[in-house]
């Protein structure tokens, strides 16, 4: 069927709409760079005998969450705007599931009276699907090397659905929590606190990895293969997130008036500078903590802690406030990190960064910016969804934080209960000692570390030297 140009809805394909499409597409690129950065950090910190398996499980978990979001997730998030217009959540799901009318319509064939800006909304599926995958990558950091692959992959699908429902409540401008006063510009609640809540349950069920917290009879210490890979991973995340920030803004006439996804008054320049300063503040404090404690972990936790703490308020902070939050945030991560370390809890990423710094940031936002108007939707002047009718409050920050963490706890508790009684949840201690690369993929590390001696291995074959069967190499 040929294109009838005279039947095209020109309002859907204007130059200004294309600019917005490119802007949101750049947010997708930035989010994918974050995934690559996270995989680099994992490659630098996973035990050598689990290096491939840890990376590939994160990658596959990412795509399971990503695909699940396309199938059903976006309809939940978009439902807040359908409800605002008097429709229902089911109407949104019917339109935006993978076979839905809006998901599969061409923008220039769609009457803007039915759905204006369709291209932008369709690109937003891609954008948020990446974050559904990122949630699974983050969760894997807390269960890596000790959770069965089958159990993890099932968890990925469920987590994508539950986090999508949570995003409807806690991220946007007219979801129930947001509309009531909970403020979260960057999705700290459903992207960071939710998997951290799941980790509270799962790490308890899975226990510590051999050699991580105390010496093990077969693993004298837990040795990371290349901590140096973490720094490039960190900078890749730093480089990708500014594009994501742009995708958390709505743009209205005149031309390019920026309003945050929460409908707070903001600007592109201030939001980006807030982002820059929380990283800088966190890096400075992390540096001081690292050299004072002689613990390299704080060189990495510091800038990430600053970012996570400031992310919920990039749209409403003033730059000096962001810098203060960034400077203080690593202390929250430090307190949680030391607390878990002393108690032998094998979780060193999600707890200090998200439960520590993320919660700290949401509370600080409720203190620093209490009374700031936001919520509702631009153009609505009265009623429950009136533009900026709601105000940031400390009470709602605490309520929203508790809901997001609690959603993760409940989800993981139900999953763990079912999985432990069916396919199993935990990798056996023997397989943890020997490593999952050899168990699942018949892969051997190229180097045997002094913590992983051949004498310490349990019931596995010895590696065959490369080229042993190659007569040419033997003669050489």
Average of pLDDT: 91
| Poorly predicted runs of 5 or more residues | 454-476
H/E series: HHHHHHHHEEHHHHEEHHHH
Query: How much helical structure, as a percent, in the residues?
Result: 55-70%
Alpha-beta content class: mainly alpha
Which sheet architecture does the biggest sheet show?
A: 2 strands, antiparallel
Tally the helices: what do you get?
A: 16
Number of strands: 4
Radius of gyration using CA atoms only: 24 Å
Task: State the shape.
Answer: globular
Distance from N terminus to C terminus (CA atoms, Å) equals 65 Å
Strand proportion: under 5%
Strand order of the largest sheet: 1-2
Main location: membrane
Keywords: Ammonia transport, Membrane, Transmembrane, Transmembrane helix, Transport
Family: Belongs to the ammonia transporter channel (TC 1.A.11.2) family.
Pfam families: Ammonium_transp
